[in-house]
Design goal:
There is one protein chain. By secondary structure, the protein is of the alpha/beta class. It is built from 7 helices and 11 strands. It has a 9-stranded mixed beta sheet. Strands 4-5 form a two-stranded antiparallel sheet. Helix 6 links the parallel strand 10 and strand 11. Helix 1 packs parallel to helix 2, helix 2 packs across helix 3 and helix 5 crosses helix 6. The protein is globular, with a radius of gyration of 18 Å. The relative contact order is 0.19.
Length: 258
Amino acid sequence: MITPYYHKESSILICENTFSFLEKMKDSSIDMIFADPPYFLSNDGISNSGGHVVSVNKGDWDKINSLEDKHHYNRTWIRMCRRILKPNGTIWISGTYHNIYSVGMALEQEGYKILNNITWQKTNPAPNLSCRYFTHSTETLLWARKNDKRARHYYNYELMKSINSGKQMKDVWTGPLTKIAEKWAGKHPTQKPEYLLERIILASTKEGDYILDPFVGSGTTGVVAKRLGRRFIGIDAEKEYLDIAIRRIEHEGETTWS
């Protein structure tokens, strides 16, 4: 029996290796998964942060030895997530070109049907320091369900249309990087903006649904899930990041369940 690192109302945080905890979860228990897995960028290179040259190294969790190891890693956690998804559940996975192509292939290999390929276009990307490439200004979000003809995934079409000025929402979403105001609880190198998770959660879940984030990091998924009345489980092996997530979730206020 695992003792949660944090458990209050609708939110649970687990401090454990993601693979280990996924093995212990019940079959068909989760309505939606949002995953922002390691991009495996930590190769001793340089990047840009606030106009300053910085190392791209984020930690041992962001390192991998080979292409084969990376794809094996992705296939393994994606396979494990499929088991715990409900028959009509869906999974969202974000990534850059460094990892998203492996993720896409892994989804198909492990028995998923890709529903959409969302391009998140950042309005304020960091400039390219080398001036030898186009500026990297997008990330990809893959939305998928089990490849089963009986599956009927949930999509709140009318709401997405209404917040898009009455027009069908397209698969290119435009917006800024995470605001400084959302980073008050501590620093995480790949923190996602709350507006992005809000759209994902509203589009593909209902109130009271169970949402899992297997790489919870600073807890954006949990913050927005709580705000929107969803139940949330987050997993991370780094206590430093879980402590950030706890501060943010606590700050979001209380949710009362009937």
